[in-house]
Write a structure and sequence with these properties.
This protein has one domain (about 5-330): Alpha/Beta hydrolase fold, catalytic domain (Rossmann fold), CATH 3.40.50.1820. The model is unreliable at about 10-45 (pLDDT under 50). The chain has helices at about 5-20, 105-115, 135-150, 165-175, 210-220, 225-235, 240, 245-250, 275-285, 310-330; strands at about 25, 35-40, 45-50, 55-65, 70-80, 85-90, 120, 155-165, 200-205, 255, 260-265, 290-295. With about 325 residues, it is α/β, with parallel strands linked by helices. Helices cover about 35% and strands about 20% of the residues. α3 (about 135-150) packs across α4 (about 165-175) and α5 (about 210-220) packs antiparallel against α6 (about 225-235). It is built from ten helices and twelve strands.
Length: about 325
């Protein structure tokens, strides 16, 4: 039985037609021990990534893009100081689509960058400025922009990854699944019009993989702020189904399935572990590679607090990057 009423079905059909752009692509991740990974471009070896390495960092900021409302979004660049070029990672901040900025994941960004990764954290438009899909459009533009700029900061643009937390994880999942979606690519990049927004992998912490399930949880917990965050971002409301990674997979849309890492707190009562387990299973059933790791004793934003679980999360992201760079090298 179709769980969507006729009006919603028509809306979803219309949105899917508007957004369909690429053919399905399943990127398989080869399993095995974690090694240093060589990233190659053409026949020339560009860099070697060792997640245990230690680099000094140069941190700077540049203008990213100006919003239609006039606000300048900024990019914060964590550049390892060494020979390079270094693997490149785009960071997408959380904040329930409504708050926070490029500084939100600074400790994680610094930890990853210090191992020899060019990390660039960007501001995204907030829901009070523009609802869905504005932040996904910013992220899509961000990937294309970073591919065009990475070499300036000694980064390798050939295999760019994405890291996203909470609502940033939701954006990251949509970015990975729909890199050529007509809605998401609407912001032009005139200086590099032929660059696309495909990414090599997506790493997430507490991603909102099913926004509607999160909304239902907010209702059960009577959390008015969380309820409001959803209704402001998903406006019109039907977009909570259209821009829903879980439901996208359930509708069997043509999507790109890049290797995906999900780090989830076992005590998270914001995004429930059971929701992530369902999403990971659905992602795998669709043909994708999804690594779900549940952190015992951890809540929604555990990585904001120093401790062994935070250290473990940082090492897990670095190992995930290394594994995917090695898989890309083997597949080349």
């Amino acid at each position: 039985m179709d769980k969507h009423p006729p009006g919603r079905r028509a809306f979803l059909k219309k949105m899917t037609v508007l957004g369909a752009a690429g053919l399905p692509m399943v990127a398989a991740l080869r399993r095995g021990p974690v090694y240093s990974a060589d990233v190659t471009g053409g026949s020339k070896m560009k860099a070697a990534y060792n997640p245990a390495a230690k680099f000094e960092l140069k941190v700077s900021e540049v203008e990213f893009r100006r919003t239609p409302g006039g606000r300048m979004l900024m990019a914060r660049i964590y550049q390892p100081q060494g020979a390079g070029p270094f693997p490149t990672l785009l960071d997408l901040h959380g904040g329930a689509w409504r708050r926070k900025d490029r500084f939100a994941e600074e400790p994680m960004d610094r930890a990853i960058a210090a191992s020899g990764v060019l990390v660039v954290a960007i501001d995204l438009r907030l829901s009070t400025e523009a609802p869905y899909p504005a932040s996904v459009m910013d992220a899509n533009y961000g990937v294309r922009w970073l591919k065009s700029k990475a070499a300036e900061w000694n980064g390798d643009p050939s295999k760019i990854g994405v890291y996203g937390s909470s609502s940033g994880g939701h954006v990251a999942e949509l970015l990975g699944m729909r890199p050529r979606d007509a809605r998401y690519i609407a912001i032009p990049l005139p200086e590099a019009p032929n660059i696309d927004a495909t990414v090599a992998y997506v790493a997430t912490r507490s991603p909102i993989s099913d926004p509607y399930a999160r909304f239902q949880q907010a209702e059960r917990m009577k959390r008015e702020g969380m309820i409001e965050n959803n209704t402001i971002y998903f406006n019109p409301w039907e977009t909570i189904y259209e821009g829903n990674p879980q439901q996208i997979l359930e509708r069997r849309e043509a999507v790109t399935l890049v290797p995906l890492l999900i780090m989830q707190g076992a005590l998270d009562d914001n995004v429930l572990p059971a929701v992530q387990e369902k999403f990971a299973a659905t992602y795998k059933a669709a043909g994708g590679d999804c690594q779900l790791n549940v952190f015992e004793g951890s809540e929604h934003e555990w990585v904001a607090k120093p401790g062994p679980q935070t250290d473990r999360a940082r090492e897990m992201v670095k190992a995930f990057i290394a594994r995917n760079l090695m898989a890309a090298r083997r597949a080349a």
